[in-house]
Design brief:
The chain has 165 residues and is α+β, with helices and mostly antiparallel strands. It is built from three helices and seven strands; from the N terminus they run E-H-H-E-E-E-E-E-E-H.
């Protein structure tokens, strides 16, 4: 399933980008992610013109009744690995799940900041694939709804941080 999430900020690109690169972003974001048991930064590094980070998540969503025989709580955890190119103002991200879950779930995409009038537009494009035989589309839509909540919370946090810079 392909998806695209767009957020517009009435804030210049450089201020939004500083917030994206901030090592404090994850701590400021955590309180807004009520659908997560755990959110933590496991890596944050700037090398030349590249910024690389890894965030670890563990969701606290209710496992639907139909999935309880096939899904464990461990399957609700993942790492988001992002590599951001400062010159291009864009990143590639990949979701790394528990190895026992990789054959069932894959997700990756791009994250781009572009000037838009006097502000900035953030465009997140991704692919999400849930390889399960029954109710795949329903489950993918539920996962995407949670992904959108997370990116919406991040946009609100970036907006708050960028206006303080």
């Amino acid at each position: 399933m392909h998806f695209e999430i767009v957020h517009e900020f009435d804030i210049p690109l450089d201020a939004v980008e500083l917030a994206v690169l901030s090592p404090n972003l994850i701590e400021r974001l955590k309180p807004h992610l009520t659908n997560m048991d755990e959110v933590k930064q496991t890596s944050h590094a700037m090398t030349g013109g590249t910024f690389e980070r890894v965030w670890r998540y563990h969701a606290n969503v209710r496992i639907p009744t139909f999935a309880r025989n096939h899904m464990t709580r461990a399957m609700l955890g993942w790492d988001e690995h992002s590599i951001y190119d400062l010159k291009k103002h864009s990143a590639r991200w990949t979701i790394l799940v528990n190895p026992s879950w990789t054959k069932y779930f894959q997700s990756e995409g791009t994250y781009e900041l572009v000037p838009s009038g006097t502000g900035t537009k953030r465009i997140i494009k991704g692919e999400l694939a849930l390889n399960v035989p029954v109710l795949r589309r329903v489950a993918e839509r539920r996962i995407l709804a949670e992904v959108k909540k997370t990116f919406d919370a991040e946009a609100a946090t970036l907006r708050d941080m960028a206006t303080l810079i």
